[in-house]
Amino acid sequence: MNRLGFTFLIFLCGVSSAVVGQDVNCGTGEACQPWLDDGTSSRCYLNGRINLRFLVDTPSDVRDEVSGPVWAAYGFCPFVDNLQLFRLTGAAAASSIVTKEISNETIETISSSTKPRYISVFGFGRSDSKEYPEKGVSNGTAVVSVLGNSVCKDPNSVAVVNMLMLSIGMHNGAFNYIQPNTVDRGNSSSTEEGKDSKASDGHEEAGKVPVQPMMVGFRPTCDEVDRCILSPGSVCIGDEPGRKNCGVCHTSTDTLEKAVIQVWTSYFGTDANGASLLSGGMDPLSYKRFAGSRLVSDLKSIVSGIQDTLGTLKELSGSQESNSTNH
């Protein structure tokens, strides 16, 4: 049962890749933007496109050389309610490597900046800063890279997340900005909570009080004692205990340039027509809760099963060739 469940999760997931600076191309249809409070025009529909943009901080020693913030930007236009895996190629390097010209020679080094770098999702911030989520406060951001002094026990290393879980929760196709005293920074498990606080168009009349959209943002992949849930040997990276994410320590620019940050994205709630969004029950964290400690053995069994099948097919193929030769 568990093995089949994870197999289906792998095959149902849509994998998309992007490189730094890739534009959002949504084709002829306009992608929805559920954070906009403009009636029905920006709402999301089941299997319709959504405008999804990730912004990855560059090190402060890079930002100091230019005016204003610098990001590595990644754009996607995925279908709403498809379980999705986004591969951000070059994001690990962009968040951790400093490139300088010295005597007409290009030198790449790991940034020595002590300031953490974040990944943000455009439009996923609180009601007072929707477009650019407030770092360290909003669920729409997460630490993506940090100097390895405390995490990796190596001052010449950097710790970078390798997998993130992003939730996109909607009520009638729009973000639900809840009362601050109803749900704290943690994500709730139900879109029913906070219904009474909403206006009739699906958006709360929040006034001047900043509120977080319900079930929107990054979910921690480390547990409450900062142990990686999906890979016990990984380090945990973040600015808040109990809400960190799994990561890997790097000591060279070569491994950073090859590293890829992956973002699993799933959907909760309802679309603009009231249809239920169901992909939220199929992401790896949900499967981990279902499979428990058997997750690793399930993965090994799946890989072993594939290898056994390939071996059998090879033997059969060899046998058929032998029979053909004898005839």
TrEMBL record:
<feature type="compositionally biased region" description="Polar residues">
    <location>
        <begin position="181"/>
        <end position="191"/>
    </location>
</feature>
<protein>
    <submittedName>
        <fullName>Uncharacterized protein</fullName>
    </submittedName>
</protein>
<feature type="compositionally biased region" description="Basic and acidic residues">
    <location>
        <begin position="192"/>
        <end position="207"/>
    </location>
</feature>
<feature type="signal peptide">
    <location>
        <begin position="1"/>
        <end position="21"/>
    </location>
</feature>
<feature type="region of interest" description="Disordered">
    <location>
        <begin position="181"/>
        <end position="208"/>
    </location>
</feature>
<keyword id="KW-0732">Signal</keyword>
